[in-house]
Design a protein that fits this description.
The complex is a heterodimer of chains A (153) and B (252). With 153 residues, chain A is an all-alpha fold. In chain A, 55% of the residues lie in helices and 0% in strands. Chain A contains 7 helices and no strands. In chain B, helix 4 crosses helix 8. The longest helix of chain B has 16 residues. In chain B, strand 4 and strand 5 form a beta hairpin. The radius of gyration of chain B is 20 Å and the shape is globular. In chain B, the strands form 4 sheets. In chain B, strands 8-1-9 form a 3-stranded mixed sheet. In chain B, strands 2-3 form a two-stranded antiparallel sheet. In chain B, strands 4-5 form a two-stranded antiparallel sheet. By secondary structure, chain B is an alpha+beta fold. The chains are: A mainly alpha (153), B alpha+beta (252). At the A-B interface, helix 3 of A face helix 1 of B.
């Protein structure tokens, strides 16, 4: 309960900062708040503010519906969260979504809320390497040299 | 603000609690029957959710099962992403091959063993958290969200069909999440069945040409499996326990 309260306070803080911190520079913004990587798909119709506060409730409701009742026609699944919010590395392969600075952990570490999902669920979408390569925009020269630097290190 | 998930709630039939059930008596029965009837009314369109009017089961013809073949085991392992660690005490037990010899006659048979999807599952009886449960369509599953890893179900299962995950895992299949500290077993490939498919072991067995495994709805008298069960002798393992297993064996 205390954790939940703390989360709500922190998240309301985040929202407040989003509303009133418009004047802050990008640098100040990143110093105060977690940097959350952008998703690839369409934005949630409910809005990000709603999803920040309610994503766990939506997921828990639909997971029980799928698990217990076999209803696969659901609106919110962890699989889709991961598929849309995962970032690809310089090698074009998905980076685990719970690793440092990635979508889930960026906020959860900031709010100090442990995620249990990935004890069982995959942290990456199931894509074979070719699909992953094809789904990614062609890298520019800078990205390529960054990748080469990374590989040679 | 209204949660969008409430819309989803409205789609599923009303959950009837015990109090309402006792109050309303017969009316509750009509309500629970309603989804099945609706499905029939719309020309037998397959229902995505677990349907209480069906009971999924397997019929394994032991005579057709080849001793040196483990296609079903490999098929299951690939589909669900589990691997044999080489330690029989901790290995996953989704499905395994069992060889039997009748000492009197010398007849040797080989057959796959997996969760028997009992109608009266002992694993569900003993589970202290309600994680072990039977779906409306007869598939027995572990809800790993509520499993505390106590392993009572492993003790209770007469078929040794369940196993405990001892080590951290990664790169699980998205449709078969598994993790350390929980119990797992054959899911009858529930993710495939919900999409109208057949379990991976049956598909793998068919691909070898042996055709020893048959999957279908035990409650539908027109299904291949129900016709086969009505025509030929078959047994459920440990029938003496009266568990009414959903997996049956012929020519055993």
């Amino acid at each position: 309960m205390i954790t939940r309260l703390a989360t709500i306070l922190v998240l309301s803080g985040l929202l407040g900062a989003g509303l009133f911190g418009g004047a802050a520079t990008a640098q100040e913004h990143s110093a105060l708040l977690p940097v959350v990587p952008k998703a690839t798909g369409e934005a949630h119709p409910e809005g990000n503010a709603f999803m920040r506060i309610n994503h766990m409730k939506l997921l828990r409701h639909d997971r029980d519906d799928t698990m217990r009742n076999g209803n696969r026609d659901i609106d919110y699944s962890l699989k889709e969260c991961v598929a849309c919010h995962v970032q690809t590395g310089a090698d074009a392969l998905p980076i685990p979504i719970n690793s440092e600075g990635q979508f889930c952990s960026a906020c959860h570490e900031f709010a100090a809320v442990k995620i249990d999902c990935f004890q069982c669920h995959n942290t990456r979408p199931e894509l074979n390497e070719t699909q992953a390569l094809l789904s990614r925009p062609l890298p520019d020269a800078a990205a390529l040299s960054a990748y080469l630097d990374e590989v040679t290190e | 603000m209204k949660l969008p998930a409430l819309k989803t709630m409205a789609k599923v039939p009303d959950q009837i609690n015990r109090r309402d059930f006792l109050k309303s008596g017969g009316a509750a029965v009509t309500l629970t029957l309603a989804p099945g009837i609706t499905v029939m009314a719309f020309g037998g369109e397959a229902s995505a959710a677990a349907n209480p009017a069906t009971r999924w089961g397997l019929l394994i013809d032991v005579n057709k099962c080849a001793k040196d073949c483990d296609a079903c085991v490999t098929g299951c392992s690939v589909e669900n992403g589990w691997k044999m660690g080489g330690n029989p005490e901790t290995d996953a037990q989704w499905i395994r091959k069992v060889d039997l010899t009748n000492k009197q006659t010398g007849r040797e048979v080989s057959m796959p063993m997996m969760c028997q999807h009992c109608e009266e599952p002992p694993c569900v009886d003993v589970c202290p958290t309600g994680a072990s449960f039977k779906r409306a369509d007869g598939i027995v599953l572990v809800d790993k969200h509520t499993c505390i890893g106590c392993r009572y179900c492993m003790m209770a299962c007469p078929f040794k069909a369940r196993s405990f995950i001892h080590e951290d895992l990664e790169d699980q299949k998205s449709y078969a999440p598994r993790g350390k500290g929980t119990v797992e077993s054959c899911t009858l490939c529930v993710h495939r069945v919900d999409e109208g498919g057949i379990p991976a072991c049956v598909e793998a067995c068919d691909a070898t040409g042996h055709g020893a495994m048959m999957f279908g709805d035990l409650k539908d008298p027109t299904s291949d499996i129900a016709i086969a069960l009505a025509s030929y002798a078959s047994v459920g393992l440990r029938d003496d326990l009266r568990l009414n297993t959903g997996v049956r064996y012929s020519n055993l």
